[in-house]
Amino acid sequence: MNKPVDLSHLAARAEEDSNTSDNPHFATVLDARLSRRGLLRGSVGTAATALFGSVALAGCGGGDDDTPAPTTPNAGALSKLGFTAVPKSMEDKVTLAAGYTATVVYALGDPLTASTAAYKNDGTDTDFGNRGGDHHDGMEWFGLSADGQPSTSANDRGLLAINHEATTDETRSSFFLHANGGTATLPRPTSEVDKETAIHGVAVVEVKKTGSTWAYVQNSTFNRRVTALSEVDIGGPAKGHALLKTKYSIDGTRTRGTLNNCGTGQTPWGSFLTGEENWFGYFTRPAGDDLARGNDKSVVALKRYGRAEGAASRHGWETAGTADIYARWINAKTGTSTDGTDDYRNEMNGMGYIVEMDPYRPSSRMVKRTALGRFAHESAAFSLAKAGEKLAVYMGDDSRNEYIYKFVSDAAWSAADANPVDRLATGAKYLDNGKLYVAKFAADGTGQWVELNLAAIPATYTAYAFADEADIRINCRLAADAVGATKMDRPEWCATHPTSGEIYFTLTNNSNRRVSPTAGSSSQLAPDSANPRAYTDTKGTSSQQGNVNGHILRVKEAAGSAAATTFTWDIYLFGAQADADTGLVNLSSLTADQDFSSPDGLKFSPSTGICWIQTDDGAYTDATNCMMLAGIPGTVGDGVKKTLAHSSALSIDTFIGKAPTADTLKRFLVGPKDCEITGLAETPDGKTMFINIQHPGENTKMADVADPTKYTSQWPSNAGYGAGKRPRSATIVITKNDGGRIGS
Ligand code: FEO
Ligand code: CA
Ligand code: CA
Ligand code: CA
């Protein structure tokens, strides 16, 4: 979600903004920058080499030469994009590059069993536990051979594991799901709440190509839904921990549901990972709960994770009845036990993880991998798996001023684990034991991974007393505050370059960046080197401030090692409108064929090496709907250092990747009205791509639900898919008309 206006009744859905730790940065970054200058003055060249390594010197100098990127490309990696760029568009349809075709394969409400009724799409449908969920988001491909076995080479039959992040709503109600738009007042009716909990979670859907036509397989035995109420195991250090004990799981080993599933990942052993993002908004915490808890340290943790007492829930699910499935949304101390086994005071500690699923085994439970930390997770991108070396998993925490993390496995990768009999046991081997780090970006183009453990917490940090190492993982935002991690401009997805192994992070935007932060504001931050922009952009008659359009940062690990504790970085691309000032805003000199805002989804094609960039924007939507672009990036350090002169008192050095050309960055697709483009899965041959169109028409008013002419989008019914005119989130399949690879 990326609402341009933060309406108060929607506050629970907005990205959370509770990082009031005082590791802001302006001073530190400025100091660091000055001391680097000092160093450079003292010993020009050598200091730059030492500090800066490949950033300043590899392939250097140049923004404008045509030297190829100094990586060894895939045999099939493209050096030039083969399609004609698509113009910006505000049409209510999927516009894509000439020579390509897109069709809908799986939408909200589609039946996933043979006996589930066809979707009427008029608000009367039920049985959502056996239907496509809402707000399709991250997605991964898991191939199937002709005889239905897992296959890493299949190109015409496979499973899509798909996140169903959320739902289009207004004043609590998911109004397109209910006949009359539903109930905005409390209590919420049970029938409405049961639909709404069921359309959240994850789906596994079989898709198959017959002739040249792709379709989902309604009666596949692989089809599966996990909802906000499905039983899920806790794995890793928080399993059985005191902070996970609830009335539902008195030994702290299980919980119900996975929520607000946003980005995804795929493990080297063939399982699916899903990130739980804005889960806190689904819980209520009544006024008076601080006192009920004796103002203990749980209050500090709850506030840091977005739930101050008095916080209302997004949907009011807790009001649908007295049954336990509704009561669990009240995250409060209501019982008399000392350990929380008679209420749901600890319920939120069961959300906020990377969750693993074996997509090939519909009956297996998902497992929350708590070693990877608890926050507003997006994607989980692995380092390139190398036999005998540890695996890293890179992750972002998507809220304003939050952090970038990596997990490093204790176990070294064994190629024999690539196709295991038991994927979840292999997941436990690599993901339940390891170190968790948070990123600190320095002003000289270097950075550090700071390990989060009890030993790292400074004695001066008194905001929260960590009980043990598991408490550090469960409350890793607080641990990251304590070690002075760098506050970022809303980290969304990350993705690993298939040959260089460099890691790219989308930083979608940050309305809290200011050249001159308001005095006393604990949330506004001055720009720093890794988050160097703060400006004013106009949209119609309004203006928006901060890092309005976002950027894509990339990291190169020291010695290319997943376990490295230092790295170099630069910024691959800055989002901007093409006509913006190239001195402070359009720093990547984007043209009208390339300009974009609010990068979010990010994925590399293993076949073509293309970096696919997807947007979830509210800033540039006066000029275009959200989009997907194709990029062929170089490497960290292939561009220039630039000093941004924000004001007479503030200039910031940053490092900008080599400017894209008309051959290396182009808009490939623009979505229908009021959607976000997200999720990307490609067949191994690179010839079939699936992406998701999330929440078309989301700015429709609930009061207009009976009048299709007032919907801001009627996609995909206007593209010939399905009954009714209510807009639906959906997966589309894209192929090239000449049968070639996507983007070639
Ligand atoms: Fe669900 Fe941060 O996007
Ligand atoms: Ca977003
Ligand atoms: Ca603008
Ligand atoms: Ca996202």
TrEMBL record:
Q: Where is this region: Disordered?
A: 515-548
Q: Which InterPro entries match?
A: PhoX, TAT_signal
Q: Where is the composition biased (Polar residues)?
A: 515-526, 538-548
* A Pfam family assignment: PhoX
Task: Report the PANTHER family cross-referenced here.
Answer: DUF839 DOMAIN-CONTAINING PROTEIN, SLR8030 PROTEIN
The protein here is known as: PhoX family phosphatase
